[in-house]
Structures are given as C-alpha cells and as structure tokens.
Amino acid sequence: MSAVTAAPAQVGSDQRAVRRRPRRLAGRALLTWIAEHALLLALAVVFVSPVVFVVFTSVMHSNQALTGDLVPRSLELGNYVRIFSEAPLATWYGNTVLYAVLSTAFMLVASVPAGYALAKLRFRGSNVIFLAIVVAMLLPPQVTAVPVYVMWSELGLTGSLWPLILPNLLGDAFSVFLIRQFFLTIPTDFANAARMDGASEWGVLWRVMIPMARPGIAAAAIFLFFRSWNDYYGPLLYASENQAAWPVAYGLATYRGIHGTDWAGTMALTVVVLVPVVVVFFLAQKVFVEGIALSGVKG
Amino acid sequence: MTSVIDRLGSPAATGLPGPPASPRIPRKRRRRIAAAAMVAPTVAGLLVFYAYPLVASIYYSFTSYDLFSPPRWVGLTNYEFLFTSDPRIGNAALNTLWFVVVLVPIKIVVALAIAGLLARRTRGSGFWRTVFYLPSLVPPVAGVVAFVFLFNPGSGPVNVVLGFFGIEGPLWFSDPALSKPSLVLLGIWMMGDLMVIMLAGLLDVPRELYEAASLDGANGWQQVRFVTLPTIQPILGFSVVTGVIAALQYFTEAAVASSVASGQASVGSGTASTLGYPGDSLLTYTQWLYARGFSNYQLGYASAMAVVLFVTASILLVVAMRRISAFQPEEVS
C-alpha cells in the first residue's frame, strides 16, 4: 500500500528538488546544518585532542612535562634522541618490522590460495573447512595458549617472536576468511574463459583471479601487518623474558616502568610507535575503509 | 539417508543439466587436486594450532603440569579449585563480565551515533570519517599509555582542563572505582572500525524507505526506530557477537593500564607484579589465566581455565555461526 502511494509522491518531491536547486539553506535547514556541524566539530576536537597533547608533551622539557602545562614552552626534540639511548629502540623497531613483514608475507603465501579455493572451487569438505576457519578466527587465543606454548617450548623457540611469525606459513584464519569473502564477489566468467584457453587451476588463480582480487588481498595484508605491529599479548607470552626480542609496542608498555616519571620520553616513544601506523594509513586509506566494511558484512 | 540426499542434490538426480560427463572428468579431477593443494597448508594449520591444542587443553586440564616435569593426572582437582577455592578468579570473571556488559553496548551506541551523523553528510564526509576512524588504528599499547598520561591525576591534561572549570579531577586509572570506566573512554576513542562498519550499513539503507516512512507521518526518531534499526539489524548482531567475543578476551588494555598506571617495572615477570592495579579492579579473566599459566607455570590449572573460557565462548560461537550470514558457508559457484 505505502509503495503505491509512495511512487507518485516521490516523483513530485524529485521535481520540487529540481526546482529548488539554487543551494540556499533556508531557516530550519540552516539551523540543523549549524547544529550538526557544531556537534561534529566538538566531537572531532575531543577525538583529536589526545594526539595533540601527546605530541605536545613529547617535545616538552622533561621537567615541564611533570607540571600541569598543556603547551610546551620550548621545543625539546632531544627527547626523541634520548629515548634511543635509554632503550634499545633500534632493535625493538627492527623486531617489529621483521615480525610484521614476515608474518604478512607468510600469510599471503598460504592464505590467498586457500581463500580462493574455498570461494571458487567446488570440492568435498570445503564447507567443513570454512566452518573450522570461522571457529578458529573467533576463538579466544587463550583457549589454545597452553598446548601451543608447550609445542614452541619443546622446539626451543620461546624467547623469540618466531612462534608468532611461523604459524602464518600455515595460513591465518581471519585472512583466509577475508580473502574468501572478496573472491566471492568476483565473477567466475574470466576464470572459465582462461580454463577454456587451457590454463591450469594455478594459472587461473595467478594470472586471472589474483589481479582482480588485489583490493581484498591488500586489505588482508594490511590488517595482518597492523595486527602484528600492534600485538602485545603474543610478545608478552613468547618473548617477555628476552628483551632483545621485544617489538616496539611491547617495549613501550614497559618503558614507563623503568623510567618512572619520564612522561616526555614516554610520550616521544608513543609518537614513535604511532607514526608508521598513521603514515601507512594515509598511503592506503581506501584499502582500509573498504576492507573493514568487507570484514563486517560482505559485498 | 544422507546418501539419498546427496544423490537428490546432484544435478543428475534433480534432472538439471550438469556438465557433460566423460570428457570433463580429468579436468574436474585436476581441479580437485589443485583445490586440495591450495587448502592443504591452511588445513594443516587448523589441525596443528587449533584442533590438537583444543584436545590437549582438555587433557592438560585434568593434570598438574609445570612444563619441566611430565603432566601428572589429578582428575577434577583443577576444576574443583577453580569453582570453589581460587581467591581471585571470581573477581576476575566479574571484571570481564563488566566489560562485556558495559563496554560492548556503549561502543556500539557511540559508533552508531557518530556513523548516523556522518551518513547525513555528503561533502567532507571523508574528512570526518578519517578523524573518527584514525584512533582505532593506534596500537592499543600506545593508546593506553597515552590515556594513562592524559588522565594522570598529577599533571594530566584532562584534570588540568577540568580544573579550568573549577572541577577537581578524580584519580581515574588509579581509582578502583574509575579504572574500568577510564578504559571505556579509551574504547570509545578507539571505536572507529566499528563506526566504519555501521556507516557502510547506514549508507546501504534504501532512501525510498525513509521517504515512504515520512509520508506515513513518521518523525525522526520513529524513522530510526522502524526503518534504520531493522534494516541494519544484521550489522548490529555482528557487532554485538564479535564485540562480546572480543570482550571475553579483554587483556592488553587492562594489563598495560595496570602496569603503566602503577608505574612499576614489570620487565621479565610479564605483568605479574602489577596485576589488576588498582586493587584488582582491572584483573580480567584472561590476565588471571596468563598469570596462573605463564607466570606461575600452573599449566594444568590454566588449561582448566581455558576450557571454561572455551565453553563460554562456544555459546557465542554457535550464535555467531547461526545468525551471521557472512559466517555461513554457501553454495560455491
């Protein structure tokens, strides 16, 4: 009923909209516009201010950082130099890069073919494997922590980040899931055409499907990269006893413990941990936003 | 019975045109072999890192095990201690429950509200979206360290700004009554990924539905209640289920907040020395599991805690896999 009445009315309102095209906001609409933008602006200030205060404090003299001052009196970039001598920051950074880069590369090798096969190839057991992947991806890691830790400890690899890097060679559940979701949205016609031309299944995957799935694969790669970059629980479990193996995020969590009152240095270290994330975000903004929508609801 | 269904489902039995039989078979078989090779590493990973550990956790939970001598069978002792005698586990479970009940809904409501504001914008939406999304990328450790600084009672900007208005700021992360709410503020600041999911959902709501509703005389709130919410209900369900599963394992933010706010060194000993600061208010279930298992090497007991966590999470897993369409396998094409 409402659909019937709605149809003509919609035409009418469209015509009105066309006639009213000259964009002059009248009375109430203008007030709403102002109210909404004022609210957005206030919220934006609240969301941005933590970063501003952190950056401000990171360039304060370490004595001023202990006062209630909000704005730095002088520009002390020396904090950024000092933290490199007070913590093995270069090592931590190197560990983080190694952890994130190797994990991502290993994940791609195993998870792209798996995601493709689960989305596009009909075979017995694919549904069971998919359900197992969903369970693995949702399962709290603490449920399996003890036996997995025992395994790595028997291999003598605790005290390093390898127990966190190597499993990616055997796929990563969330990445397989995400890549599968993306492959589902790609039409099979091109793949079939390539098969007609005699391409093997691996040839179809490599030359036809992967190029078309690049946005989805990029999203999975970036998510895993940041999951590793940000990880705290994993390094705590496997590397906490070996300071030389710490990634930088874990080092940051312990820094204030060692340098108790050094807020300026702590904030400088926070900025150092944060900057690469922000840089990569602005380089790959589209991938992020589309990937997140993909992880929530497909298509 | 199953074989009948199998046959009914096959193209030959349903009378639908299937692929021509004989010349295709080698092709299909090659495809099956390729598919098996493609999923083999992942299947191996599922077996090694999920299936075996799940079974092993159950076994270890009936043993006393410290990693250095072989596990010794103790029957139900671990479970008995867990449910009757562990002095801190009840509090830890309640703290985790608090995050499930308070943090998850607040994050969803705020994410939905901000997404609602952004969905009405056409120009400049990219800018606003970036502002609200970016904090969710901040490494949680950095976010916690920043918030403990911002809210520190001595010189923190938050209390300084409150002071401008003549308000004496509280102790935030050092006050057992406010430490969890302080982490909720952090959670709100970092809700950006949820907001992006909500925004994608809101932008998918067909405009005609709103027009029809307003013709029927629905006001703004009624449109939200009867058009927006029902349409994005799958996304809300997804957010609740995945949010609760994440809250069940709430660890990093609480552990780092305890360690940084107490200002004590925690090198080498993990988080043991500062666990739960202030006053056990931030001790969550997974932190207690970690402390039992990996600080005290009571791996059998930690496994019993893991099994209890698994049983709890299973209920949610079942809900997730039944109700969320993205988690369901579908006909491959």
TrEMBL record, chain A:
It comes from the Bacteria. GO terms for biological process: transmembrane transport. CDD domains: TM_PBP2 (cd06261). Keywords: Cell membrane, Membrane, Transmembrane, Transmembrane helix, Transport. One of its GO terms (cellular component) is plasma membrane. The keyword Transport applies. SUPFAM superfamilies: MetI-like (SSF161098). The chain crosses the membrane at residues 29-56, 97-116, 128-152, 164-183, 204-226, 263-284. The keyword Transmembrane helix applies. It is a multi-pass membrane protein. It is found in: Cell membrane. InterPro entries: MetI-like (IPR000515), MetI-like_sf (IPR035906). Residues 93-284 form the ABC transmembrane type-1 domain. Belongs to the binding-protein-dependent transport system permease family. This is Carbohydrate ABC transporter permease. It comes from Labedella phragmitis.
TrEMBL record, chain B:
One of its GO terms (biological process) is transmembrane transport. PROSITE patterns: ABC_TM1. GO terms for cellular component: plasma membrane. It is found in: Cell membrane. The chain crosses the membrane at residues 33-62, 97-119, 131-151, 183-205, 226-251, 299-320. The keyword Transmembrane applies. Belongs to the binding-protein-dependent transport system permease family. This is Sugar ABC transporter permease. The lineage of its organism: Bacteria, Bacillati, Actinomycetota, Actinomycetes, Micrococcales.
